[in-house]
Every structure is written in C-alpha cells, then in structure tokens.
Amino acid sequence: MFLCRLNKPLLPRIFILALLLLSGSAFSQPILPPNGPLFLQNEVASVYLEIDPDSLTFMLDNLQYAKDHDFPARFIYQSSVLTDTLDLVGLRLRGNTSLGAQKKSFKISFNAFQPGFEFHGIDKMNLNGEHNDPSLMRARLSWESLRKMGLPGSRTSFVRFYINGAYHGVYLNAEHIDREFAASRFNDDGQGNLFKCLYPADLAYLGENPELYKLQVNGRPVYDLLTNEAVADYSDLSAFISLLNNTPIPQLKCALDPVFNADEYLKVAAFDVLTGNWDGYIYNQNNYYLYHNQRSGRFEYIPYDLDNTLGVDWIGKDWTARDPYSWQTGNRPLYFRLLQVPEYRAEFTHYLNLYAQTVLHPDTIRARALEFQALIGPSVEIDPYYPLDYGFDSADFYASLDTAWGGQVAWGIAEYLDLRVSSLQGQLDPLNPDLLVLNHAQFSRTAEKELTFHARVEGNPAQVNLLLSQNDGPLLPQPMFDDGLHGDQLPGDGVYGVEFSFASWIDSFAFQYQAFNGGDTVVEPCEPLMMDLRYSEIKLKINELMASNSSGISDEFGQREDWIEIYNAGTQAVGLGQIYLSDDFTQPGKWHFPLLQLPPGGFTLVWADAQPEQGALHTHFKLSKDGEELALFQKSGDQFLLIDHVVFGPQQSNVSWGRQQDGQEPWVAFTQPTPNSSNQKPPTSQPDLIAWPNPNPGDILYLSQPTNLEIFNPLGQKIASHLQITQLDLHTYRPGIYLLRHPKGVLKLVIP
Q1: How far is residue 439's CA from residue 618's CA, in Å, rounded to a whole number?
Q2: How many alpha carbons lie under 13 Å from residue 23 in its C-beta half-sphere?
Q3: Phi, psi at 56, each rounded to 5°
Q4: Residue 702 phi/psi, 5° resolution?
C-alpha cells in the first residue's frame, strides 16, 4: 500500500480551494487537548517550590548557568480540583532578555531527575513573569485566540507562584512545546523532526546541502533540532526550504501543498498581522517551530513566545496601520512568496477579515480581558515583583485595556485592536464571496478494503464529491455528506464524508476531492493520489502481541514494554531489510526492520515502546491498550505491499492476543503468553475463555476466542444464545448479575 501522484488533467480552478491532504486514522486538523487540571481557565492555582536556599542564591547569581541546569526542588500544586506534591523536580531559569529582570521566569522539569516521568500529561511547566506587560495577559489572550482559531497553540493559565514560602506574584503557566506537545496535536507519536526557529530564522535558501542549515548565531542554533538529535538529519528542512524558495510562483501551490500545511500557516499570518506579533517570523524572523508531521508528511508551523503583541512595541513601528500584504522586512519567503500566489492571497484576506470580526474583534478581546482582570486583580495588587522592573502599580493594571503606559507599551490592548481593525478595512483586497476553503482532507482505513474519506469545507458548497478511480479506471464522483451518517463528524459541521468498500479484485485506486459552488467546480489535490491494495507474496505473520505489559517479560534494559511477535509461515528465509511495521494502515513506512534474516518457522520479537534509541528492534510507537490496527508491509520499488494485518479490540493487562495456531486463524487471548516461541498447545488443551471488561458498564463484552454462549438472567432464565461469537453487545441489558454458559464452563458477568 502506498500513495503516489498521478499525472491527469485537472478541472478548471475557478475559485479558491485550499487543501490539506492527510491520510490517517485520526482527523487531520490539529488536535486541541482539553485544558485539564493544570491549565484552569477560571481559577488561579497556586504553585509552591521548595529549594535549598544556597541553591537558590547560586541560581540568581549565575544566570546563564541557571538557564541551562536543573536544580533539585520540591513541587506542590494546589487548586480546587487538584492538590499534589512531587518530592523531586528540576528548577531552572528561562528566557533570554528576561534573565536580567527582577521578576524572573522559571521552568519546572518533572522529568529532570526521573526520566520519562510526566505530571498529568506534561513533563515541563513554563512559568513566565510577563514582567514587561502591565496587563500580564497579552500572551494569554494571544494563545487563547490561536486555540479558538483551531491552531496548535499552547494551553495557558494564571498561577500564584511561591518559592520557599515567599510569594513571587502572578505568573503565566504556558505549555511547553516539545515532542509530547507535537504528539498530542498531530497524533503521530511525536516522532517527526521538531525545529525550534530563532533569530535570524528567515527560511532563506542557503544551498542544497542540509548541513548548511545547522548554522549558529552567537553559539545558538538558528534551526535547533529538538527531536531525533542522534541522527540530526536536516534533509527534510533543506528540501522544504529549497522548494519554497526555488519553485516558480505559478507552480508553488501545487508543489507546496504536499509538503507544508499552508492553509494553517495563513491563519497564523493573519493572527500575526492582527495582533501586531512583530517578534515572530514575518517581521523579526524569530520565535516559531516547524514540525515535520509524520502522519501527513508535511511541515506544520507552530507559533511561540507571544508576549510582544496587542500593543507592545520595542522598535518604533505603527503596528495598528501597517500594510498586511507588505508587513515583512527583508527576505521572508514563507510570507512573501505565498502572498504572490493568488489563491493563497485570497485565503489570507479571508482570514484577516474573518478573525477581525470574530476571535480578535475588539469587543471579544475586551470582554475576555475584563474577566481576567477580575480573576487575577486581587493577586496582582499584592504581587511584590510586579512593580520592580518598570514601576507598574495596580492602577496601570486596571487601565491596561484602554491606556498606553508609555515606553514599550504603545497602546492599550483594546485600544490597539480598535485601531488595527479600523485601518484594516481600508487595506484589504476585495473579498471573494464565492471563496471555498477545502482543508483537513483525509482517508482512514477501517478494514482490509474498507475506507472512509473526509474533507472539511469552509464556505457554502452546493456539493462535495470524492472523485474515485478503481484499477486505473476513470475518476467517477461519489457524493460526500455532512449528515453525521457517512463517516463524517457532526451534522452541519462542515466535515463531509463517504464510506467506500472495494471489491476483492480491486488492486489499486486513485482519488481527488471535488466541490461545487455557484456552478463552478474545483478539484484538489492538483494530481490524483493513488493507493495500492495488493498483497505481498511474503509469508510473514503478525503472530502474537501484548498491548499492556506490567508483569510479563522485560526487554534488554529490564523494562516491561508492549511487544509484537513476527512469525515466518513460509518455506524460505525472509530478509527483513525491506519490511516495515506500522500501527496505521495509511502510514506503511512507519517503522523499518533492521537487516535480519528470519528462517522458515522462525520468530522475532519487536518492542513497541517508542524508544528506538534502545536498539534496532525497538519501534518509535506504542500499542494502544484500547485497541488499534497493526500491519506488515513490504517495500517494492516505491510501492508498499500489504503482507499481513490485524485489527484488535481492548486488551487485558498481561494477557497476550495471538493466533491459536502459528500463522493461522482464529485469534485468541493467552493468559500464558508465548513471546518468541510457538503459540500452539497440545491438541487436547484448549485455552480458557476470558471475557472483559468485567464488571461491564453495559457496553461491549469481548471474548478471548470464538465460542457458543448461552446467557441466563439473575432468575436463572435463559434470555439469549449465540453461536461462535467473539463479542457481545450489552447495551440492552439491565444492571445485575448474569451467567454466561459456554462449552467449557460458566462465567459470571456483572453489570453495575
């Protein structure tokens, strides 16, 4: 199975249709995790740090050292929904110019001395002093606006911060951007390259050699690779920058869409212009991340460091009236070249107008800012560090919406937006009333030849179709629906879907997405994509797996991890050098086996632990205890051929799921797993039947093997019988105790 592009003629491009094409089993727009207990929206939690006084003194006397080294401390988090204590965390300073501030910013590392440890899903907490902002809320308003726009912004909250019992004031708790952040937003295990891009990261072309992009300024990388550091392969960044800079403008959109999420970046660019975020990419070539999304194969743009927004100005520019189409200074190809593409420019104009009237409208921001003032005002009034850097007082805090403080605070928050939105109306290109934006398109595979296709359309389409070709046949329209019944999401939410089953003789298909509006037609992507459905002739089998291992076998590091057993059911040895393993049908090349030979009848064990650095048989993904898909592929030329696959449901801890006989159906549960050895038991021995979850909330009961079942109610009356089932739907069953009789005995089922 693989994707490639076919050279076929396109229908006329009459109006704008921007596409983000993604194949994967999760919807492709950025995921926005819930705020949870660490990012409370309407409460100010308290964070207490206890650190050795001598260590604290050393930190404050050695700022550069303390920025890069963790000091041991005790951490206490306290709120109405969570009170917790960690006896050992790392504490260090953070920031660049803010290092010299009286109200310093801090980073708390929960995994500094306990590798792999996370505190409610995060491994670091950034506490920002916001010392140059009398409102203390510009960054939070900006981050919150990005999330309302559906963009991958950091979660934020306000906290009261204490060190050794001394109150240090109100701080912004801003989510740290790292591998875990990327994994949570893009659902790809965070295994792509994540580049932190700091001044002067202009994305200008330096040459074809990837090593050229490892340049440093003042000893700091401009494009700092934060993941996959051991390999340090910059070839993906180099290829993206080369394509961005060197593709002729008429071909740029078709070339760029497969490798960069341009639609989402245009939203960020509109945000930068509206909020006056001059310290980001467009003006200051600074403060952003690029993440190479492994699920889509495309780079994602992630904004960073949003305190210089909404009226803060250090360089003497009028951000309230600057031309949105020439907002940059110097060479900024990601902004300048995109706006030379008519489709992208129209989309950018649309987002400027849309967000000026909604998310970033002055009244919207004013209302939220007033809520924040009421929330943190009492804590700001007693903040001993708030006045130290610029002489702010509580009057400045309460006047910060409508009054410029002076110095770097050139406008009040609402005052700035009033001026920006007003001037923008005379600067925008004419809006295209027929503009449609089709993005977040994807397909997901639910079985061997069953797929669901999705596409989100902004605008008012009369019809959305999937254009589908089977075995090199013609592209034929398949209607897509936004009714909640065709694999789409909620009715009327703009997400269109269609489910499609391919006949067994279909070896391949190609597809595009099509939309109508006012009689006009547009098709994306620029060329059809093709997927191969053929099987490989190699006889490898996924033979057994364990998705929750807490007391079973350990890897070579003594860690109990998920594992997958591969079995050679053929008569010839198989070289694994061109074999791939994936937990996503639509990412066939997700993990590559090492150069091993597997003899006929042989086994090999793979550790699915997301720790590839531990060895050649450690994948960069884990298995889900709740169930998922798993597949083996052979790479043949530029194609991936499916070898074997399994879709499994919820798993019990320390119980494996495997083939009852090696390489054969059916699959059963093993209370005594057989990793790296045969699953087969003596012919007279049959595995016990296991039913889970039990107690069951009245959902689905899973059975470890196909079985005949008779069900008796609490009065001993038989109420149902089934033949050779592997799961039982309990939604119509009332709470109580039931007896399940099967050929080898009786199980008790409890529905609370």
Answers
A1: 35
A2: 22
A3: -65, -45
A4: -100, 140
b (16+ CB within 10 A) / e for 64-97: eebbeebbebebebebeeeeeeeeebbbbbbbee
Contacts of 375 (CB under 8 A, 6+ apart): 42, 43, 44, 158
Q: Other C-beta atoms within 10 Å of 728: how many?
A: 18
* Nearest alpha carbon to residue 290 among 335, 332, 328, 260: 260
Give the closest residue to 140 by CA, choosing from 109, 110, 170, 166.
170
DSSP code of residue 246:
H
Taking the mean position of all CA atoms in its chain, how far away is CA 93? 28
Cα 405 from Cα 394, distance rounded (Å):
12
Taking 3-state DSSP, the helix, strand and coil percentages for the chain, each rounded to the nearest 5, stand at: 20, 35, 45
| CB contact burial 269-278 (16+ within 10 A = b; e otherwise) | bbbbbbbbbb
pLDDT, tens digit (0-9, with 9 covering 90-100), for 363-412: 999 999 999 999 999 999 999 999 999 999 999 999 999 999 999 999 99
Buried b (16+ CB within 10 A) or exposed e, 473-486: eebeeeebbbeeeb
- CB-count exposure of residue 712 (10 Å: 0-12, 13-18, 19+): middle
From edge to edge, which strands make up the β-sheet containing 495-501?
A: 21-23, 437-447, 450-458, 495-501
**Phi, psi at residue 416, to the nearest 5°?**
-60, -50
262, 244 contact by CB (below 8 A): no
Mean pLDDT across the stretch 125-135? 97
Cα separations (Å) of 627 from 452, 548, 623, 640?
19, 11, 8, 24
| Buried b / exposed e along 202-233 (16+ C-beta atoms within 10 A) | bbebeeeebeebbeeeeeebbbbbbbbeeeee
Alpha carbons 265 and 108: distance in angstroms, whole number: 30
pLDDT in tens, 43-76: 999 999 999 999 999 999 999 999 999 999 999 9
Q: Coil, strand, or helix at residue 317?
A: coil
Count Cα atoms within 13 angstroms, Cβ side, for 213. Answer: 27
Higher pLDDT, 705 or 374: 374
- Given the candidates 2.60.40.10, 3.40.50.300, 3.40.50.920, 3.90.1150.10, the CATH classification of the domain at 3-17+436-530 is 2.60.40.10
Q: For residues 571 and 594, what is the distance between their CA atoms, to the nearest angstrom?
A: 21
Which DSSP string do the residues of 430-483 spell out, in sequence order?
A: PP-TT--EEEEEEEEEEETTEEEEEEEEES--SEEEEEEEETT---EEEE-B-S
Could you tell me if 640 and 589 are in contact, meaning their C-beta atoms sit under 8 angstroms apart? yes
CA-closest candidate to residue 311, choices 134, 63, 558: 134
Spatial contact of 458 and 514, defined as CB atoms under 8 Å apart: no
Report, as an integer, the average pLDDT of 116-133.
Answer: 93
What pLDDT sits at residue 690? 79
What pLDDT shows up at residue 24? Answer: 39
**Count of helices and strands (H, E) across the chain:** 13, 38
How far is the C-alpha of 347 from the C-alpha of 253, rounded, in Å? 12
Q: Residue ranges per domain, the chain?
A: 3-17+436-530, 45-178+363-394, 190-357, 540-670, 691-751
pLDDT in tens, 496-541: 999 989 888 888 899 999 988 876 777 888 889 887 787 889 999 9
| pTM (2 d.p.) | 0.80
**Burial code of 627-664, b = ≥16 C-beta within 10 A, e = fewer?**
ebbbbbbbbeeebbbbbbbbebebbbeebbbbbbebbe
Q: How far is CA 722 from CA 185, 705, 715, in A?
A: 42, 13, 20
Token pair recorded at residue 232: 């340090």
Q: Look at residue 562 in the predicted model and tell me its pLDDT.
A: 94
One-letter amino acid for residue 362 of the chain: P
